[in-house]
Amino acid sequence: xxxxxxxxxxxxxxxxxxxxxxxxxxxxxxxxxxxxxxxxxxxxxxxxxxxxxxxxxxxxxxxxxxxxxxxxxxxxxxxxxxxxxxxxxxxxxxxxxxxxxxxxxxxxxxxxxxxxxxxxxxxxxxxxxxxxxxxxxxxxxxxxxxxxxxxxxxxxxxxxxxxxxxxxxxxxxxxxxxxxxxxxxxxxxxxxxxxxxxxxxxxxxxxxxxxxxxxxxxxxxxxxxxxxxxxxxxxxxxxxxxxxxxxxxxxxxxxxxxxxxx
Length: 262
What we know:
Layout: H1 8-25, E1 34-39, E2 42-45, E3 48-49, E4 54-68, E5 83-87, E6 129-138, H2 145-150, E7 154-158, H3 163-177, E8 184-192, E9 198-207, H4 211-228
């Protein structure tokens, strides 16, 4: 059972500080481990479909992430971006291509021609996607302070079309509960909005009240930005196409998952 002690006054003060930091970092947002993939109408964690399309997690941190891909997306051979960069949220103007990016397009992201409106292959957007990279812990992996410290972090990409969803949710949690996102349990759902767009929804499940879990989450939060800015693995050669029967779905996290029906 969750433990709530007199130390909650201390947490309230910390929550207010972190919540305000989070809101300031995204105030200008418009419109190599386990990966979370948000698809139209489904969510996958480590290649396995999340049951009922509802991912209950703790958003432990986030960074700004720009990514440019030279070739169209290939579901049979997903690759890292050819050029990419990271920055602390709110400091995107100073972002530069990561030193490990294999095909740097500019000396900095602000002046990059791929980061201009109207350069996308489809629509009027940018060829380089201005995204947010989030780090999450599955809520069921955080039963106490010890398990929270050891829980594996998964990373996911919030696309430009869903940045307002993320900002709106962060603002709501800060305004209504005075907390940063790492101090609440979040449910993320993906909807099939139309044939081209992925629409995410985020809602708070419960505030976290256990002092040991909160202390562990705070320790992880202060190190998450650095972890989220680690470079992508090198691009790989396209593998030989496998038959559908040879494809298997795996998940690194504990708990029930269903195989991707596609």
